[in-house]
Amino acid sequence: MRKIGILGGGQLGRMLLQAAANYPVETYVLENDAECPAAHLCHHFTKGDITRYDDVYNFGKNLDALTIEIENVNIDALEQLEKEGKRIFPKPQVLRIICNKVRQKQYYADYNIPTSEFVVTQNLEELRQHVHLLPAVHKLGQGGYDGRGVQIIENESDIEKGFDAESVLEKKVAIEKEIALMVAVANDGKITMYPPVEMVFDDVLNLLSYQLCPAELSQEVYFKAEATALTTVKNFQSAGLFAVEMFVTPSGDVLVNETAPRVHNSGHHTIEAHYSSQFDMLWRIMLDYPLGCTDAIMPSLMQNILGAEGHSGEAHYEGLEEMLKLENAFFHIYGKKNTKPGRKMGHVTIISKEKADLLHKANKIKHNLSVVAKTPHE
Q1: Residue 170's Cα: distance from chain center in Å?
Q2: Angle, to 10 degrees, between the axis of helix 278-286 and the axis of helix 11-20?
Q3: Is 78 in contact with 95 (CB distance < 8 Å)?
Q4: Fewest C-beta atoms under 10 Å: which of 5, 150, 239, 300?
């Protein structure tokens, strides 16, 4: 039995643990919240801070391997554990690049990976010197996550909305589609890829609303996307699972937006819609098993279930029972006790051969299922 630890106990850790049940592995989770979604599914839970050196080092020193479900972890501790022979997925050197938006963007430039034009700004004063790049997106170098730390700067009058800290200013590009491609890399260097998905975002919350798989792309764009994702991941020189998020422009160019070195929201549909899910795949990589089959069983749509606007408190799922009657719709409720506006509370994957059927059911769920706060007299 290999002993493998997960840093972070949110929904990604929960779904990773669900897949672990199929393998001879003893699972460990480090997380500050003893009631987190992953707490009750692991063999061993440790309450601690994934950003503190001592907590991460002490957690990992008796394990065989470690992985993450969020990039905001103590990388110094992981580097020390790696020196002591522990296997880290992905390698700490990759996390150093990814966890900082400035270093990530410079990585793309260093390896000639197509990405939007950008400059690095250290403060608001420097931001004012780059009005020629506007309209643009300002991304905080360190600490931004799930729409936080991202600001749209349309014109000069928006500059005060920017960040007075090291950030990346990216020129806005015309986007026809946003796509993501999951890449799996084994310890022996073998690579496999999932089909690209098309992502549709909530403009207000700046979060993924739903995604379709496979993405409808011309053969030329499909090949460009695969080649770009492959180049992005190969240069990390690390085993693991990587989600490469990309823009497709109206002229057919493919530009890398961001990379996540872990299981990712854009791969949730693989649980029901593909032969080997992203979670199964990561266990295969960490346990040195052959890579799984990434082929789709059927086309799919994955939709996030978000906390309703104006509701904060103990979560209640209105309309869930009725929605469970839908055929080929698979609901995942993450077990978070409290809801708040825009919080990811679950997801649903719908599978069907017909795109119209996928969209119809997704729309039905969107309008008939809501996560609200229980009122005191309920």
Answers
A1: 20
A2: 70
A3: yes
A4: 150
DSSP type of residue 135: S
**Cα four-point dihedral sign 34, 39, 44, 50:** negative
Please choose, from the candidates 113, 166, 114, the residue with its C-alpha nearest in 3D space to the C-alpha of residue 140: 166
Please give the structure tokens belonging to residue 118: 């950008």
Contacts of 275 (CB under 8 A, 6+ apart): 292, 293, 294, 295, 297
Q: What is the pLDDT of residue 148?
A: 77
Cα-Cα-Cα-Cα torsion 189, 192, 197, 199, nearest 10 degrees, comes to: -20
Sign of CA dihedral 22, 241, 291, 256: positive
Residue 162 and residue 170: Cα distance in Å, rounded? 12
pTM: 0.94
Distance CA 91, CA 307 (A): 34
Is 163 exposed, middle or buried (CB count within 10 Å of its CB: 0-12, 13-18, 19+)? buried
For residue 377, what pLDDT is reported?
A: 41
Which helix (H) or strand (E) segment is 359 a member of? helix 355-368
d(CA 74, CA 55): 9
207 residue type, one letter: L
What would the pLDDT profile of 137-149 be if each residue is shown by its tens digit?
999 998 776 567 8
Helices 75-83/53-60 angle, 10° precision: 30
